[in-house]
Amino acid sequence: MIAVGQRLPDATLSELTADGVVEHQIRELFAQKKVVLFAVPGAFTPTCSNAHLPGFVALADEIKAKGVDLIVCVSVNDAFVMKAWGEQQNASEIMMLGDGSAAFAKALGLEFDTGNFGGVRSRRYSMLLDDSVVKILNLEAPKAFEVSDAHTMLAALNA
Question: Which member of 37, 48, 79, 137 is catalytic?
Fold first, then answer.
């Protein structure tokens, strides 16, 4: 499992833009940037839609004011679903990236299998990255939502 002090593995995440689906190489995208990345088990799911993503939407300006270049939301969904979810949540300040095959979650060691409910998904977490190196990792216990929220990340950035 990824830990504080480690560099993100090479991975590709997808984004639907006006020009179509763009495949981002994560290390390249995050190079020389301070990034808050948070992952959710699934777009349009209750906790993700009612609390996790909305918290980052509400605090995006305050988080970016702390020197954060990008706020990124990742889910084991395709780029089309992530785009639709971002629009529904008014998440214009958040980069919505799809990990359709869960390859990124697996590379991080942060995947879990929901069985027939949805298959392999990402665990819920937030992290602060500096040039793709993990500086903060807030990993949730299964079925919890206590430490990966936007308020906790903002408090850490203020510390």
Answer: 48
Q: What pairs with residue 59 in β-bridges?
A: none
Q: Do the domain assignments include residue 29?
A: yes
Q: Determine, yes or no, domain membership for 121.
A: yes
Which residue range(s) make up the domain with 134? 12-158
CATH number, domain of 16, equals 3.40.30.10
> Residue 75: what are its φ and ψ, rounded to 5°?
-145, 155
Q: Is 48 an active-site residue?
A: yes
Asked if residues 30 and 132 have their Cβ atoms less than 8 Å apart, the reply is: yes
| Residue 4 forms part of a structural domain | no
- pTM score, whole prediction: 0.96
Residue 114 clears pLDDT 90, i.e. is over it: no
Report phi then psi at 83, rounded to 5.
Answer: -65, -50
Number of domains in the chain: 1
Rounded to whole angstroms, how far apart are CA atoms 150 and 53?
Answer: 8
| Amino acid identity at 5 | G
Angle between helix 150-158 and 53-64 (nearest 10): 20
